[in-house]
């Protein structure tokens, strides 16, 4: 009798759980974040009958998003191959260079897109690629050297990628294959203990700390993992009470009395982690880096393009909370009637959860955990980065989030 076959979502759940366990061992404060998130969710569920309007407590408890960074289109294509085995496809294009606090990366999010897959396990990974083509950050000489460095390193074992392609084509694999495959996939994102070339890392840091984190080391790693919480303001207070230093603000929309929309995020400050550095003379000695942190998120209903226009207008105000009611009504019924948010079958009692990201918030979280600003030269951006370019670079469609939400809104609520 052949061993049972695991479906794609089961592989994804194991992958997410494996990464979470590994990251908790590497960054103990993340384990505290998960613990406090569970307490907040349990208390919120006990007090609010509508707590599961945007997903079951089982989904919310297991839900994570991760973030990784890579250096080149080839590396991003390899990530796409690996994540496809877990049913995670590229959705959305995010240009963090255009944020108020610019970061020299372009990004997409790998996640499930089918409603049932999302309900089983919505694990998503925000994946950023270094924008080496942009001369504002990388002159011709530095770009050549960075791309040569990236071309010499190998993030993933070719055998792992070959197996991932087979599993993606087969729509899953048996239990005996799953264990070593998931373990190898998780291990690929472990923090490396290889000594870091200090001169090279410092040179890249003068451009951007993110550039150094991507192209100044020999491997990629989990930059942060993010549990989902039902009351992020309560979470922020509880973490602070435990002596965990949080960033200064909660990113995204303000807290209001109306329906939660899109995404609110915050994090504890990146911690100084011990790393080994190699000096120009070849000597290896201890040092620290602050690049990894623990993020937490609260998700709301997905907005339509019209709703997103109102959101952008609201967030442009000096104090968005004070004028929020000028842009958004206070009930799901009104939101649905005005075409501002997505609901299954148009039913206001069946909101569709926002599964994606906000570039301003992502850049804000990144910036809040860096020690220095990104340095941009006064040069013309002729890099031609956009969603179409990224799709061509990795030879995969970049799914349009609005099209996915529109399709979900046609479904009848269950």
TrEMBL record:
Transmembrane spans: none
GO MF annotations, alphabetized: dioxygenase activity
Cofactor(s), by name: Fe(2+)
PANTHER family reported for this sequence: 2-OXOADIPATE DIOXYGENASE_DECARBOXYLASE (PTHR39479:SF2), PTHR39479
Name the record gives this protein: 2-oxoadipate dioxygenase/decarboxylase
Keywords: Dioxygenase, Iron, Oxidoreductase
Keyword Iron applies: yes
Family per record: Belongs to the 2-oxoadipate dioxygenase/decarboxylase family.
Protein species of origin: Mycobacterium haemophilum
Enzyme class (EC, first level): oxidoreductase
Gene3D superfamilies assigned: Uncharacterised protein PF07063, DUF1338
EC number: 1.13.11.93
